[in-house]
Design goal:
Number of helices: 15
Shape: flat
Distance between the termini: 35 Å
Strand order of the largest sheet: 2-1-3-4
Low-confidence stretches: none
Strand content: 5-15%
Structural class: alpha/beta
Largest sheet: 4 strands, parallel
Helix content: 55-70%
Mean pLDDT: 87
Length: 425
């Protein structure tokens, strides 16, 4: 399966490439009839470059994970993809019209609708060839890890945890075997697994590939040194810094400046007092900095740092709830980006007192500070706000996945997923 999955994704990327230009040809045929070949050439180059951005969006919305799709999820993801593609395409042709000498409007709308239909029907047909029932997951290893995977897959849409692996199992179809890191197979067990032809995954690899997490209970210091210690190459760090500044300037010009006065006025009318709210956070390599936000709660003399949802929710005024729901309260954090204290993408910074408590309670929690903290992150787009210690551990598992797999493409996926969440709040 490890070899089959990339091959399947590559083949369907080629299919999407064909459908993309089929949609373009179909659009030009609707607009210009049988004379469409005359117009195809001038559209070819700009749409050729556009396809690669569409490909990234398809990847970002997990539309190549056919083994983790059903029709309901497929429909939601394609709608989200279409909205994002429309916004991006408008921006692309607005800034590229002087280069490409075309600025499609009606053509672009027809094209996106055509590609949407081709995409949906192609994915719907593909789903017929993938299993409709849950994949059965079997396990080999200690009781502690068995309990963890059983709990994590308890309500999963696509995986159903069964039990310890039965070496007399005959039918290996639609089944996966997950083996704990320190489990040593006996020769007979090894031969039995080979004969069964069951798809086999290492415990950590299974979590990383299908759940987007690094399981805390399955790793140790040696594993972390091999996979995380070399975080952030110089090229990645400096290029990411340039991109942070570029997007922060855009956000400042097109969002912060137009919205500052109305937001400030509504905050003051909701609860007279400061417009901004500052509190200390633990940043890169545990350096303390002041995080800036629009104020969303009523002023009190005593502020207690809390890491779980509690009484402070009652202090949020109505417009503050709107700011939080739309994440507009985080707009002032672009100034933290300008100062180099924050990045667009990275683990969310925690308050110092809470950080100290969690560092004592959760192993490897301090590793979160090996990356520059971010406004959004892998944990934020994949998990909810943690309300207890166990949920905080799960959030850390997502952060560890980011630390292990950081790259510019993953940062782009996180930004796209963040936009997707904002569009569906």
């Amino acid at each position: 399966m490890k070899k089959e999955i990339p091959l399947i994704k590559f083949l369907f990327a080629l299919l999407d490439f064909f459908l993309f230009f089929l949609a373009l040809g179909f659009t030009l045929f609707i607009r210009f009839g049988f004379n469409f070949p005359l117009y195809f050439q001038e559209h070819l180059l700009p749409f050729f470059f556009l396809f690669f951005f569409y490909f990234l969006l398809l990847f970002a919305f997990n539309l190549y994970d056919f083994y983790l799709l059903n029709y309901k999820i497929l429909f939601k993801r394609i709608i989200s993809f279409t909205l994002s593609a429309l916004i991006f395409s408008v921006i692309y042709f607005y800034f590229g019209q002087t280069v490409f000498q075309i600025s499609p409007k009606t053509n672009l709308l027809i094209f996106i609708l055509s590609f949407l239909l081709f995409l949906f029907f192609s994915r719907a047909l593909i789903l017929k060839f993938f299993q409709k029932r849950k994949i059965e997951v079997y396990f080999l290893g200690d009781e502690k890890l068995k309990h963890k995977i059983e709990k994590d897959l308890e309500a999963h849409q696509f995986f159903s945890f069964k039990n310890y692996f039965d070496f007399d199992l005959k039918n290996s179809g639609n089944k996966i075997l997950v083996i704990a890191p320190h489990y040593h197979l006996k020769p007979k067990e090894f031969q039995s697994i080979l004969n069964s032809e069951i798809i086999t995954f290492d415990f950590i690899d299974f979590y990383e590939r299908f759940l987007g997490r690094i399981p805390l209970e399955a790793i140790d210091s040696d594993w972390l040194l091999r996979h995380i210690a070399s975080f952030q190459s110089n090229f990645y760090f400096y290029f990411k810094r340039v991109m942070d500044l570029f997007f922060a300037i855009l956000i400042f010009i097109f969002l912060f400046l137009p919205l500052f006065l109305p937001i400030s006025l509504l905050i003051y009318l909701s609860d007279p007092g400061p417009i901004f709210f500052k509190n200390f956070r633990v940043g890169y390599k545990k350096k303390i900095f002041s995080l800036l936000k629009f104020r969303t709660m009523k002023e009190t003399k005593i502020r207690k740092e809390k890491w779980a949802v509690g009484e402070e929710d009652k202090r949020i005024f109505p417009f503050g709830k709107f700011l939080r729901m739309t994440h507009l309260d985080e707009l002032p954090q672009i100034f933290n980006i300008f100062k180099g204290e924050l990045s667009l993408v990275g683990p969310r910074p925690e308050q110092p007192t809470i950080f100290s408590e969690l560092e004592k309670e959760i192993p490897f929690y301090g590793l979160r500070t090996f990356a520059l903290p971010g406004i959004t992150g892998w944990a934020q787009v994949n998990y909810k706000y943690p309300e207890n210690l166990e949920e905080t551990k799960i959030k850390l598992e997502y952060d560890l996945y980011y630390l292990k797999n950081y790259n510019l493409f993953l940062d782009f996926l996180i930004i796209i997923k963040t936009i997707q969440k904002l569009l569906t709040f």
